[in-house]
């Protein structure tokens, strides 16, 4: 069911229910008032005629003549009157159409001496309109035990109530009709802004993601909705642009080594070569394949961290032990290049993190430091315990990073000097991976560097 239909249904439903309740209340109130009027009329008349009967005692035939004259003159709600002797079971007086005499009840029981009047209704005739009756004791010393009964035929009143019913019924049906028409109009008007938004959004494709919804001047909910959608479009456009750039950069990054590999293998196959030449070509190809595998693995790790699909297990990681291990691993390559690698600092510095990811983080930093430091230099790793963090600094005496690029090097595929030979550098993903790992650990990474004098990368991690 659409919102339009739901709105229409609710609107009509609420109006129809309140209309019905109002009509019912009006009908019940009117009927009650009318019945009370009749009862009051009956009571007043019966009291008056009872007084009259008591005063004329014992001449009842004279009284009957006067009563008949009086009552027959009344055109609306003609009153019928009976004076009844329950002991003898006979009427002493009856004014009204003779055929109605039998309708008057002959059995009655006054329950309480204080409540000595009984109202009752007897259905009469084909249509069953009621005869409203009042039965009360005459309370006369002259005629002890006599009962006075007054009756009013309710046909006129019930016909009026029927007409009121018809009137209220027709008004209700018309009201529901108007409510339906009004509801349709209101639903259409209030949902029009949503239709407008949908048609504006339909025009936004992937090639015009910079398009935005127009925001009106009025400060209403639609304006908030449009502004919210615009903010979301901005985020979508931003991530779409980043994904596009990432895909293009990744393709570009993989194309060069693949072309070089292809070329190398093609040249090797051009003519028959010696075993040594084949061996050199294969080991070069293997090195290229390894570099490619590293790049692809780095890309995969970054994509998984971006998609927050990476849920590493965090535990206590003793940083001194981890960095000593890395010193052993990288020490061999550093020594070959004529570099010294040292690790110093507090033994009891324990971070809260993932062992594998922290190894990758510090491995990347030490690897870079060795790679960008000329022979004879040194790489120093220091560990310091701070209030609720562990600070690890990787300092080298290498070529340094120009000031204007120090902020950019943490972005993807950024290399300081594109003219540096590929074998000296990677795909420009290492520091971006470092920053993603640090972010995952809710830490911080910064760099201080001076061209020609060296760099210091500082990583702060929450301690365990
Ligand atoms: P790469 O894999 O190419 O080294 P990184 O993201 O690790 O990519 O580094 C980005 C760039 O920052 C490198 O191209 C390099 O020029 C520069 N860089 C990183 N570490 C150092 C360092 N210790 N000394 C000098 N330059 C560095």
Describe it.
This protein has three domains: 3-161, Beta-Lactamase; 221-305, Signal transduction histidine kinase, dimerisation/phosphotransfer (DHp) domain (Helix Hairpins); 312-462, Heat Shock Protein 90 (2-Layer Sandwich). The relative contact order is 0.07. The longest helix has 54 residues, at 3-56. The protein has 464 residues and is of the alpha+beta class. Helix 4 runs antiparallel to helix 5, helix 6 (319-337) runs parallel beside helix 7 and helix 7 (355-371) packs antiparallel against helix 8. The protein contains eight helices and twelve strands. The radius of gyration is 52 Å and the shape is rod-shaped.
Helical amount: 40-55%
CATH homologous superfamily title of the largest domain:
PAS domain
Give the mean pLDDT: 88
Bound molecules: adenosine-5'-diphosphate
How do the strands of the widest beta sheet line up side by side?
Answer: 2-1-5-4-3
The CATH architecture of the largest domain comes to 2-Layer Sandwich
CATH fold group of the largest domain: Beta-Lactamase
Rg (C-alpha, Å): 52 Å
Shape: rod-shaped
Count of discrete domains: 3
Main beta sheet = 5 strands, antiparallel
Which structural class matches the secondary elements? alpha+beta
Task: Please report the distance between the alpha carbons of the first and last residues.
Answer: 55 Å
Class of the largest domain, according to the CATH hierarchy?
Alpha Beta
SSE pattern, N- to C-terminal: HHEEEEEHHHEHEEHEEHEE
- DSSP helical segment count: 8
Return residue spans where pLDDT drops below 50 for at least 5 consecutive residues.
Answer: none
Q: How many β-strand runs?
A: 12
Residue fraction in strands: 15-25%
């Amino acid at each position: 069911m659409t919102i339009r239909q739901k709105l229409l249904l609710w609107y009509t439903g609420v109006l129809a229910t309140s209309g019905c309740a109002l009509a019912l209340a009006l009908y019940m109130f009117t009927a009650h008032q009318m019945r009370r009027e009749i009862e009051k009329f009956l009571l007043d008349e019966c009291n008056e005629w009872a007084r009259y009967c008591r005063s004329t005692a014992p001449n009842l035939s004279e009284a009957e003549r006067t009563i008949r004259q009086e009552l027959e003159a009344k055109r609306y709600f003609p009153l019928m009157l009976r004076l009844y002797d329950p002991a003898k079971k006979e009427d002493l007086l009856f004014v009204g159409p003779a055929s109605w005499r039998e309708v008057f009840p002959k059995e009655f029981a006054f329950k309480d001496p204080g409540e000595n009047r009984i109202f009752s209704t007897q259905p009469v005739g084909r249509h069953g309109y009621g005869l409203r009756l009042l039965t009360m004791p005459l309370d006369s010393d002259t005629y002890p035990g006599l009962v006075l009964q007054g009756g009013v035929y309710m046909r006129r009143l019930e016909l009026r109530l029927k007409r009121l019913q018809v009137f209220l019924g027709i008004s209700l049906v018309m009201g529901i009709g108007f409510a339906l028409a009004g509801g349709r109009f209101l639903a259409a008007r209030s949902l029009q802004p949503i239709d407008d938004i949908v048609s504006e959004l339909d025009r936004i494709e992937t090639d015009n993601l910079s398009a935005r919804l127009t925001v009106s001047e009025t400060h209403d909910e639609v304006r908030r909705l449009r502004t919210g959608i615009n903010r979301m479009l901005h985020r979508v456009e931003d991530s779409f642009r980043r994904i596009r750039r990432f895909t293009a950069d990744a393709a570009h990054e993989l194309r060069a080594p693949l072309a070089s590999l292809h070329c190398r293998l093609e040249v090797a196959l051009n003519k028959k070569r010696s075993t040594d030449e084949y061996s050199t070509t294969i080991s070069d190809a293997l090195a290229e394949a390894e570099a490619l595998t590293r790049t692809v693995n780095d890309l995969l790790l970054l994509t998984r961290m971006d998609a927050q699909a990476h849920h590493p297990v965090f535990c206590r990681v003793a940083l001194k032990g981890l960095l000593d291990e890395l010193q052993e691993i990288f020490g061999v390559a550093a020594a070959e290049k004529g570099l010294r690698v040292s690790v110093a600092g507090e033994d009891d510095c324990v971070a809260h993190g993932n062992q594998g990811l922290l190894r990758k983080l510090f491995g990347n930093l030490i690897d870079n430091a060795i790679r960008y430091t000329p022979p004879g230099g040194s790489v120093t790793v220091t560990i310091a315990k701070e209030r609720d963090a562990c600070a690890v600094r990787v300092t080298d005496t290498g070529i340094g990073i120009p000031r204007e690029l120090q902020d950019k090097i943490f972005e993807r595929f950024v290399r300081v000097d594109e003219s540096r030979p590929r074998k000296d550098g990677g795909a420009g993903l290492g520091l971006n991976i470092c920053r993603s790992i640090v972010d995952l650990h809710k830490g911080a990474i910064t760099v201080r560097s001076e061209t020609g004098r060296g760099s210091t990368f500082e990583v702060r991690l929450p301690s365990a």
